[in-house]
Design brief:
Length: 295
């Protein structure tokens, strides 16, 4: 009296507002017919109920379903339960079949204009105030010091001055892009603001990944996995408010400065409850040579 159950979701990653379409296939592998039953498919906190007719041996019954998505999150689809009972409804027996499948509902994002054309190479990194002996961003000429590479000797200036002159460069870094998203409940006036902030962080992060920048995303509880676009959106799908004692945007900026000291650009995202003084205090916690944008 047990079906072979196959749960197939066409897409396990959708955007808020899209429908996730799937199929539930029930097969009778036994030598006897199986009487009609009800099949329950849990979806998050809700569930769908399907009426399955009598199945002869080796017969197959398929149910198609669509899951509407109205909010960001991670929904557990399944496990499938088969309900059977007596005609009077006095007794009921449940068989749980198959494992649950996670459905990721991604936040809405906007395609932003790129900051560079084509592939971002190391020589397109942002120059910083630190000077280096060997790089691609020329700064000035100085006198030769023991240990300098002779390939950087500027021979025309050496002949004119009478001393060996070498080129000095500004150190350039490959653009290390950091997105700090505050999850503190006190930073937001409404739940819609929090969802908008998540969409902003996702849009900025996706643009950085498309520009081949080194992306690091962080919230109060720690870093988010952001090695590629899907992993970043999966992490944002399951994001919730942090505990009040974990601090607001200023504490998050301090964590960014501590764990990403080589950042070139930092984007801090928070709600409208944060005033200008708090934002300035957050930006002051980041290194001086980091370009900071607060949203």
């Amino acid at each position: 009296t047990v079906y072979d159950v196959d749960l197939d979701l066409t897409r396990t990653h959708v955007v808020v507002g899209e429908r996730a379409v799937g199929a539930l296939t029930l097969t009778n592998r036994s030598r006897r017919a199986i009487l009609p039953s009800r099949v329950v498919l849990p979806v998050g906190s809700g569930r769908g109920v399907f009426e399955v007719p009598r199945l002869a041996p080796d017969a197959v019954h398929e149910e198609l379903f669509a899951i509407p998505t109205t909010a960001r999150g991670v929904l557990a689809v399944g496990p499938v339960s088969v309900l059977r009972g007596d005609p009077l409804g006095l007794f009921e027996r449940t068989h749980d079949r198959n494992d649950a499948v996670d459905l990721y509902v991604h936040p809405r994002t906007t395609s932003l204009d790129g900051l560079s054309l084509g592939h971002l190479r190391d020589l397109e990194g942002l120059p910083v105030r630190q000077l280096a002996r060997d790089d691609v961003s020329f700064h000035a000429l100085r006198e030769y010091q023991p240990g300098d590479d002779l390939r950087h000797v500027h021979w025309r200036s050496t002949a004119r001055v009478g001393e060996v002159m070498v080129r000095q460069y500004e150190e350039t870094r490959r653009s290390h892009f950091v997105v700090g998203l505050s999850t503190h409940p006190g930073d937001y006036r409404t739940p819609e603001e929090f969802e908008l902030a998540i969409s902003v962080a996702g849009s900025v992060g996706l643009r950085a990944l498309r520009d081949s920048r080194t992306l690091e995303a962080r919230v109060q509880r720690g870093p988010l996995r952001a090695t590629n676009a899907r992993r970043l959106l999966d992490e944002l799908s399951s994001l919730e408010h942090s505990r009040p004692r974990e601090g607001g945007i200023a504490g998050l900026a301090g964590a960014v400065a501590l764990h990403a000291p080589d950042a070139a650009v930092a984007v801090l995202v928070c709600g409208s409850s944060v005033d200008g003084a708090e934002l300035r205090r957050a930006c002051a916690r980041l290194p001086y040579d980091v370009r900071v944008l607060a949203v």
